[in-house]
Amino acid sequence: MPDGQYTFRDRDTGSSEKVAKPRQELKVTTAKNIEDIMRVTSIRAAGYMAEQDCPYEEEFDGNDFCATHMIGWVNGEPVACLRLRYFGGFAKMERVAVRSSHRKSKIAFKMIRAGIEHCTRKGFTKIIGHARDELIPLYRLFGFRVEEDARSLVFSDYSYTEMVRETELPANAITLETDPYALIRPEGDWDREGILEVSVDRTAATPGSGFAMAAE
What we know:
By secondary structure, the chain is α+β, with helices and mostly antiparallel strands. Helix content is 24%, strand content 29%. The chain has six helices and nine strands, in the order βββααβββαβαββαα. A hairpin with a 2-residue loop joins strand 4 and strand 5 (77-87).
């Protein structure tokens, strides 16, 4: 499993001593604003459209605004992304992309694990994905499996196989008993106080004819 750590010979001195390359700072975040979506769009365009010659309308398929997007960062640079969508009883992981310059780093592994954690935290014990056939061994590393009745499909000129991952809910899964303030925090930041909680210190407004109908 690549880890982004390399050794090399000191070419200036001719020494055979191996020198460790500085450790990269890896981080995964959830897309929160339009700038984050632009980052995701750029990464996917570079990978799927430029490298695989995928048509625009096939890559940007109308599902991006009903999904959660995760961004993988290396030393502060956005280099990877994935998309999560949710259905009754299961979540779907898709559109995983890593810029070619960072495919030897560990960012893909960190990002996929973060995606799995995000889904299970939201209460999904089953995650499915359509893996390109040559990448099936990669997704097996994360607990995905090809079941006996797995379906194959072809789209955008590549062959894919359905894979499934099942697990138990974590102790901190979001449920009906979860703190209501946590439910109105930004996606993925359920453990950190959100901006709406600051408004608790303000005096509650008295309803009147000038107020719009709203619910949180």
